[in-house]
């Protein structure tokens, strides 16, 4: 359903599909239940159909906390959709070794010019204490910011 809440995002996603020179991903922010994740998952599915037909790297759509659990996966290829950014633990300990998987993945993708999309309930400013200026400053170059306003669609 296209409505006043999601119309801008849908128009931008449509433009993104038709622009092979797009360099930025989307940072989609909004309240719970506004359709952010469903919309971006649908967009990733469409992009995967296009990628399969043209033998391009597949789009990967994952919850931020699942990225941490699957850190052995290669996140350096294809577009990456990080859902629920800000809800995961920033630092994890593995046998006494501290690591920062989300920070490392975002920094690596920024350094390599890889398109990354973020879906979150947190505004960029709200994420600064969690991720620091180092990562948040890169968001301006990495993302086009789109807010979905309104109440939850869940009933």
Describe this structure in words.
This protein has 155 residues and is of the alpha/beta class. The protein is 42% helix and 20% strand. It has helices at 7-17, 36-53, 64-69, 101-111, 124-142, and strands at 25-30, 60-63, 80-83, 92-94, 97-99, 116-120, 143-148. α4 runs parallel beside α5. It is globular and about 50 Å long.
Number of helices: 5
Q: Alpha-carbon distance between the termini?
A: 16 Å
User: Could you say which overall geometry the principal axes of the C-alpha atoms support?
Assistant: globular
The strand order across the widest sheet is 2-3-6-1-7
Summarize the structure.
The protein is of the alpha/beta class. The protein has helices spanning 7-17, 36-53, 64-69, 101-111, 124-142, and strands at 25-30, 60-63, 80-83, 92-94, 97-99, 116-120, 143-148.
Key traits:
155 residues; alpha/beta; 5-stranded parallel sheet; two-stranded antiparallel ribbon; 7 strands; globular
């Amino acid at each position: 359903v296209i409505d006043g809440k999601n119309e801008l995002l849908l128009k931008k996603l449509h433009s993104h599909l038709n622009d092979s020179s797009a360099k930025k991903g989307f940072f989609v922010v909004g309240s719970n239940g506004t359709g952010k994740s469903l919309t971006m998952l649908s967009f990733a599915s469409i992009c995967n159909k296009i990628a399969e037909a043209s033998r391009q790297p597949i789009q990967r759509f994952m919850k931020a906390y699942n990225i941490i659990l699957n850190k052995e996966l290669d996140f350096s290829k294809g577009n990456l959709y990080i859902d629920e950014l800000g809800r995961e633990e920033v630092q994890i300990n593995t046998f006494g070794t501290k690591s920062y998987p989300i920070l490392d993945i975002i920094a690596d993708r920024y350094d390599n010019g890889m398109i990354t999309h973020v879906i979150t309930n947190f505004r960029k400013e709200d994420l600064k204490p969690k991720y620091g200026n180092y990562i948040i400053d890169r968001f301006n170059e990495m993302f086009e910011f789109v807010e979905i306003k309104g109440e939850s669609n869940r009933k």
